[in-house]
């Protein structure tokens, strides 16, 4: 005989999994929307630099759903058009870090003991610095701007990719099918391209998805400090920096760019963790 309430208890795991899957789908949809805004901002808003001093520091109202900033510019329009430079720094630096880290990790795994030890000790030194501190050091040398911010965050993230790629490449290199390929006389380049590189792609993509959030935070932090994209270009971190001087007059001026950064980072991280769980054979959530 089934105990009272046992059906409800048995259904809890399914409800939890269903809720987790719904959360992942919602996060993926939001991140896709942000990417669409970055690619085609004109679909959602117009005139991010249109100044109207008579409407400065107004709250949400007709014609300006998220209010206006200190120059009377529409906050919604600046948020939408700010998605491109924000994602350019976050996604661009992650892609570059993935490429550089892959080459670095493969060199460490396949370049011999001396090369591998030297490459990994360099990675350990760079990883001993927090990502934002490393990015600040690089920008301090190169100067402010979008390109330098991307390069700075790339330098900060590449060692993490190198470690993952090296570990995965070492596992694949010791597998039976790679040893068989060596015995059959395949060239090292062919073994690398046909057997090793394809097997490091999946963990690399998962790490890249997760690191997009880290890169977005680092990019917004650099912009907040005036070291990222320069005004008057709309960028979420720069919008936060400008809003801090007007919090008494319009607190929503800081709310919306802060929410955009937070939700975008959360959505990228949730999608990345879900991909990681699926790769490892676990249920997301």
UniProtKB/TrEMBL annotation:
The chain crosses the membrane at residues 24-44, 87-110, 122-143, 149-165, 200-229, 249-272. Residues 83-272 form the ABC transmembrane type-1 domain. The keyword Transmembrane applies. It is a multi-pass membrane protein. InterPro entries: BP-dependent_transpt_permease, MetI-like, MetI-like_sf. PROSITE patterns: ABC_TM1. Keywords: Cell membrane, Membrane, Transmembrane, Transmembrane helix, Transport. The keyword Manganese does not apply. It is found in: Cell membrane. Belongs to the binding-protein-dependent transport system permease family. This is Peptide ABC transporter permease.
């Amino acid at each position: 005989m089934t105990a009272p309430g046992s059906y409800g208890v048995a259904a809890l795991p399914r409800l939890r999994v269903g809720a987790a899957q719904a959360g992942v789908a919602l996060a993926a949809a939001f991140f896709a929307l942000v990417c669409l805004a970055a690619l085609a901002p004109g679909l959602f808003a117009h005139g991010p630099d249109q100044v109207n001093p008579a409407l400065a520091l107004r709250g949400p109202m007709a014609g300006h759903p998220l209010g206006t900033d200190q120059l009377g510019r529409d906050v919604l329009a600046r948020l939408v058009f700010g998605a491109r430079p924000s994602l350019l720094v976050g996604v661009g630096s992650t892609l570059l870090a993935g490429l550089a880290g892959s080459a670095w990790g493969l060199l460490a795994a396949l370049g011999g003991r001396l090369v591998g030890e030297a490459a990994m000790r360099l990675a350990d030194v760079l990883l001993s610095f927090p990502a934002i501190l490393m990015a600040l050091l690089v920008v301090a040398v190169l100067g402010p701007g979008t390109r330098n911010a991307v390069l700075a965050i790339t330098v900060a993230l590449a060692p993490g990719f190198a470690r993952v790629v090296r570990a995965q490449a070492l596992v694949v290199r010791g597998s039976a099918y790679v040893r068989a390929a060596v015995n059959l006389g395949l060239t090292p380049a062919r073994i690398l391209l046909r057997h090793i590189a394809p097997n490091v792609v999946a963990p690399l993509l998962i790490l890249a998805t997760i690191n997009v959030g880290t890169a977005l935070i680092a990019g917004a932090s650099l912009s907040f400090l005036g070291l990222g994209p320069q005004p008057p270009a709309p960028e979420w971190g720069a919008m936060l920096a400008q809003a801090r001087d007007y919090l008494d007059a319009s607190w929503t001026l800081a709310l919306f760019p802060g929410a955009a950064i937070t939700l975008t980072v959360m959505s990228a991280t949730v999608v990345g963790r879900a991909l990681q769980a699926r790769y490892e054979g676990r249920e997301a959530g």
